[in-house]
Amino acid sequence: MKNTTYLPVVAGLALSATSAMAETPVLQVMTYDSFVTEWGPGPAIEAAFEAECACDLQFVGTGDGAALLARLQLEGPRTEADIVLGLDTNLTAAARETGLFAPHGVEADLDLPIAWTDADFLPFDWGYFAFVGNAGADAPTSLRALADSDTKIVIQDPRSSTPGLGLLMWVKTAYGDEAASLWADLADNIVTVTPGWSEAYGMFLEGEADAVLSYTTSPAYHLIAEEDDSKVAWGFDEGHYMQVEVAGKVAGTDQPELADQFLAFMVSDGFQSVIPTTNWMYPAVTPAGGLPDGFETLLTPAKSLLLSPEDAAAMRDAALDEWRNALSQ
């Protein structure tokens, strides 16, 4: 009799648990790999959002930033992503052309150095590209001076990485018709080209290059997390190219209300306060507590460079050809 009574009870409890799990909505956010690492923003943001949404937030890492667009173009309407997070303004025109994104519908007071009017893509952080080297080392003062020096650098592939693509736009914006010549001279400085930012920065930290393509905010990590002031961003006379990272809602999502809730959360303090000391970028909305101590020491470029999404898209193929031809010699 005990067995006869016990088994249906256990079966009922299991059925109830399975039903509850099945009813938990899942929101899938496609992003770049470093975002979801244990030291990136992903874990803290996941915990904070799940505390509000009664959902299962799943981050899916997909290489570096530019690889997001390539995967999305490959998957098309079949994509299982509800949100794509980690594109930037060099990619948004191409992303919009896929027809896969819906308006974000969020109104927020953004703290960006530029006006923001894009109805489809919502910023979550921003920064300036820079070469990061060791304090006390000879530091070139321009891209041209870098190309004319013996400084060894590591950069990222513009076909898979948003910093790599940002460098292409930086060179093209600053040098125009002379960009191909600059790349030809810079080729001897390049130790290697990595698929993404993490690999390149790791090589620099291991001493395999004098400097790495990164951000003006990168030294903040060493200063705040490691109490190490030995890494510095080099200021260049031509100015520094800006990156604005964005997220977009996939039009075919089967969780539209949850996706809207996440985008609204993205510009809230619960998300934005995590960004400075995990993604090591400037938040799109300054947190209530302000920026962490140490950010005030960072390089502020005297000149900011940024192409419109449409101009960046129009320039991309020619800039890629110049880069590829220079490095293949």
Task: Give a description of the structure.
The longest helix has 22 residues, at 2-23. It is globular, with a radius of gyration of 22 Å. The protein contains 12 helices and 12 strands. With 329 residues, it is an alpha/beta fold. Strands 1, 2, 3, 4, 5, 6, 7, 8, 9, 10, 11 and 12 form a 12-stranded mixed beta sheet that branches. It has helices at 2-23, 42-53, 65-75, 92-97, 143-148, 162-175, 179-186, 197-205, 218-225, 256-266, 269-272, 309-327; strands at 26-31, 56-61, 83-88, 101-102, 121-134, 153-156, 190-194, 211-215, 231-233, 240-250, 282-283, 304-305.
Features:
alpha/beta, 12-stranded mixed β-sheet, disordered N terminus, single chain, 329 residues
Give a concise summary.
This protein has 329 residues and is of the alpha/beta class. It has helices at 2-23, 42-53, 65-75, 92-97, 143-148, 162-175, 179-186, 197-205, 218-225, 256-266, 269-272, 309-327, and strands at residues 26-31, 56-61, 83-88, 101-102, 121-134, 153-156, 190-194, 211-215, 231-233, 240-250, 282-283, 304-305.
The residue fraction in helices comes out at 25-40%
Mean pLDDT: 93
Stretches where pLDDT is under 50 for at least 5 consecutive residues are 1-7, 13-20
How would a textbook summarize the main sheet? 12 strands, mixed
What is the rounded distance between the termini? 83 Å
Could you tell me the strand content as a percent range? 15-25%
Number of helices: 12
What is the chain-wise order of helices and strands? HEHEHEHEEHEHHEHEHEEHHEEH
DSSP summary, beta strand count = 12
Secondary-structure-derived class: alpha/beta
Could you say which overall geometry the principal axes of the C-alpha atoms support? globular
Question: In angstroms, what is the radius of gyration?
Answer: 22 Å
